[in-house]
C-alpha cells in the first residue's frame, strides 16, 4: 500500500499532478475511495446528503466528530480532513481552536476545514500556529446561504472577483495548507491558482485548479434530488440500489429467497459405531 498522504505532501503538490479529493461520511465508503484519493473530506454537506437537512446550517460538532471518526477508520492512504460546522468557529479564534482540537483528538483526522476568507485569517493563523492544519474554503460558502441568499456562482462582477482574490491571499498568508475554491467563475479560479503559493482545490471552479473535489454521492448518482451543473456523474449507484431492492422484493414475494444455500440446517445425526 502507498504511504499515507500528509498535509506537507498536499501543500507541496502545487502545480504538480492534480490532487484527487472526494467527500466521505462512512467507513465503507472511505475504504472504497481511499486508494484513488489524495484527500477525503468529511464535509458538512453530510447534513444534506446523509441526513436530508435543507442546508448545512443545522449540522452539529457531534455529527462531524462521529462521521470523522468513521472515515478515519476506513482510510489508510488519503489525508482525512473534517469540516468545522456552522457555529463552531465563527465566534472567536479561541472557540475555533477548542472545537478543532476536539475534532483532531476525537477523530484522528489530519486537518480541519473552515469557510471564510479575510475575515477568518486571524482564526486560521491562530489554529495553524498552534498545531492544527487548516484547509481554507473561499468563493461560494454554503454556511453563509442565509446572508448571501442562494448558491449562485461568485466573481462575475469585477469588484467581487477582487474581494475573492484578496480572500485567497489572506487565507494563504494566514497559513492555510490549501484552499477550496467553490462556485466561482472559471477565469477567477485560474487567477487565484496562479496567484497563491498553496494548492487550490476546485469545485465548480476550473480545470486549472491544483486539484478537484466533488461530493461523492453526487458523482456516484446516489443523491436523488437536484445535482449541480459542475458535477460529472461517474456511476448510477442510486439506480443500482433501486433495482436491487426491486429484485429482492420480487424474490421474497415469490418465496425464491432465501434458498437452500442461505439456510442453517440441523447437524447431521452421528452414526453410532458398533
Ligand atoms: O461539505 C462539503 O462537502 C464541502 C465540499 C463540497 C468542498 O465543503
Ligand atoms: Na462543507
Automatic annotation (TrEMBL):
Keywords of the record: Cytoplasm, Magnesium, Metal-binding, Pantothenate biosynthesis, Transferase
GO process terms (BP): pantothenate biosynthetic process
Binding site for Mg(2+): 44, 83, 115
Localization per record: Cytoplasm
Cofactor note: Binds 1 Mg(2+) ion per subunit.
Pathway terms, separated by semicolons: Cofactor biosynthesis; (R)-pantothenate biosynthesis; (R)-pantoate from 3-methyl-2-oxobutanoate: step 1/2
EC number in record: 2.1.2.11
Binding of 3-methyl-2-oxobutanoate, residues: 44-45, 83, 113
Catalysed conversion reaction: (6R)-5,10-methylene-5,6,7,8-tetrahydrofolate + 3-methyl-2-oxobutanoate + H2O = 2-dehydropantoate + (6S)-5,6,7,8-tetrahydrofolate
Signal sequence region: none
CDD domains listed in its UniProt record: KPHMT-like (cd06557)
Superkingdom of the source species: Bacteria
GO cellular component: cytoplasm
CC cofactor: Mg(2+)
Membership in a protein family: Belongs to the PanB family.
Subunit: Homodecamer; pentamer of dimers.
Purpose of the protein: Catalyzes the reversible reaction in which hydroxymethyl group from 5,10-methylenetetrahydrofolate is transferred onto alpha-ketoisovalerate to form ketopantoate.
Protein name: 3-methyl-2-oxobutanoate hydroxymethyltransferase
Organism expressing this protein natively: Methylopila capsulata
Lineage of the species this protein comes from: Bacteria, Pseudomonadati, Pseudomonadota, Alphaproteobacteria, Hyphomicrobiales
